[in-house]
Design brief:
This protein is mainly beta. It is built from four helices and 28 strands. The N terminus and C terminus are likely disordered.
Length: 482
């Protein structure tokens, strides 16, 4: 059992305050170190409060404490042998709790105190890895899930194991499946454990999220209950926090309109918006204390090697959703999440208004009829960082940052002890740095506090040296419903 503790992770926020004119908000963007920018702007009617949207679909968010329990391993790559540490990392969860993880990208370094988010396999390299289920089996049948080292050694036929050699052998077995790496443990007993785990592993399904809400963004007319937003969790019960502005009269209810303060797995939540409410937006948050399921992936918001969960204490997990409403016109809800299968970011626009919502993306025009939705995939280069900001009047801003990391790095070109010039000093399991970064979470980007009388929506991808720019915007001349 791990001891619970709390940590607060700070993250930089990109803000944009573009000049406004009637019917348009201008694109705001800032260049990030790796050369890719994605930014968007929403123009709204009515008041809007500053808000930071969730950067993932929900679950645990944590800060990396470093590699804690490890022994030596040897990687054979490019005709060379490279010694490297192999073992367990620890993370401190925001709000309380501890996680233990293994690395699933051997050639990629970790950043010191990097922020990590619980992430579906499909949004990491595991999504395209036919052996991902075998990695979960290894986690469930080795250290630290099996902390009786004598029993583990007997099952594997290894001889005596210590925590260090058990962690190293487990990590080596995982690398053989996560990276297809030619790697072995330096200790003989650890190597026997790695061989046994590799040979014994069978396909096991991806574990469910510790906590998630879906969809992350809904919309509709004032005077209605907007939703449903469905709770998915392994916790027995979650607490439900109402919209921050209680004076607005917006309430979180069940389908019949009864106010809700707690919920269970499968519960459906609604935003109850009184008739006559000014056009606007609100958000709700659910939170629980639970153990994150073994095998859940954790992806870095910045460039840092992807991790997979080996053990969890009782941990604070949370998820958020937003609602947008108006009296008439197009009433879109906008969300986005990474699509590793297609190599980009899915931008989804749904429209619960009484007019069509038309936008242009990557040179093509898309129209979402009333009551319909459409998803458009915006191409993003592998390993590129993104900075996605939605802004509005009254200081409103929501920012999503990360990198698209859908593949493992391969052997790299500079060896395991090489770092790129823009890479900060690292605490690593592999000491490498010339290859890809871990993915960040651009999931369920709702349209919180961006009211639905939209005159301009923009998403831009700028690849330095590539000259590729994509725009998502409301077509000029379309009725705004004002």
């Amino acid at each position: 059992m791990f001891s619970a503790s709390s940590a607060t992770a700070s993250s930089s926020r990109a803000t944009a305050n573009p000049p406004r004119s009637r019917g348009i908000s201008r694109l705001a963007a800032s260049v990030v170190a790796t050369g890719l920018v994605m930014a968007g702007a929403l123009t709204t009617a009515g008041s809007a409060a500053a808000d930071e949207a969730p950067q993932h679909q929900g679950g645990a968010s944590a800060v990396l404490d470093g590699l804690k329990t490890f022994d030596d391993a040897v990687l054979h790559a490019d005709g060379k042998d490279q010694k490297l540490p192999a073992g367990l990392f620890e993370m401190t969860v925001d709000g309380g709790g501890k996680l233990k993880t293994y690395c699933i990208d051997i050639h990629n370094p970790t950043q010191e105190e990097a922020k990590y988010l619980e992430t579906p396999w499909s949004q990491t390299s595991l999504g395209g890895n036919k052996n991902a289920g075998r990695i979960r089996w290894i986690l469930e049948h080795s250290y630290p899930q099996i902390d009786d080292l004598s029993a583990l050694a007997k099952a594997a036929g290894t001889g005596p194991l210590t925590e260090r050699t058990a962690a190293a052998g487990t990590q080596v077995a995982i690398w053989r499946y996560s990276d297809n790496a030619d790697v072995e443990a330096a200790d003989g007993q650890a190597e026997k454990l790695a061989d046994w785990l590799q040979k014994s592993a069978t396909d096991t399904a991806e574990p469910k999220a510790s906590l998630a809400l879906g969809p992350g963004a809904v919309s509709g007319r004032s005077g209605e209950r907007l939703g449903p937003v469905t709770v998915r969790t392994n916790a027995g019960q979650v607490s439900v926090a109402p919209p921050a502005d209680s004076a607005s009269g917006i309430a979180v209810t069940d389908k019949k309109g009864k106010p809700v303060t707690t919920a269970v797995n499968g519960a459906e939540l609604y935003f109850d918006v009184p008739a006559g409410s000014p056009d606007g937006s609100a958000s709700l948050t659910v939170q629980a204390t639970t153990s994150v399921p073994v095998g859940r992936a954790f992806a870095g918001v910045t460039r840092s090697q992807t991790q997979i969960l080996a053990g969890s204490s009782e941990t604070t997990v949370s998820a958020s959703a937003t609602a947008t409403w108006a009296k008439k016109g197009a009433i879109p809800a906008l969300s986005a999440k990474k699509n590793c299968a297609k190599g980009g970011v899915d931008v989804t626009a749904s429209n619960e208004g009484d007019e069509a919502f038309t936008f242009e993306l990557a040179g093509m025009t898309h129209t979402v009829e009333a009551g319909k939705s459409e998803t458009v995939t915006v191409p993003v280069a592998e390993d590129q960082a993104y900075d996605f900001t939605i802004t509005g009047p009254g200081g409103f801003t929501k920012t999503f940052k990360g990198v698209l990391d859908c593949k493992t790095s391969g052997s790299g070109t500079g060896g395991l002890d090489t770092q790129t010039a823009d890479q900060p000093s690292t605490t690593t399991a592999t000491a490498g740095g010339s290859s890809t970064g871990a993915e960040g979470g651009l999931a369920e980007t709702g349209s919180s506090n961006a009211t639905p009388i939209i005159a301009g929506v923009a998403i831009a991808l700028v690849v330095i040296g590539g000259g590729a720019v994509f725009f998502l915007r409301r077509r000029k001349g379309q009725s705004s419903g004002e």
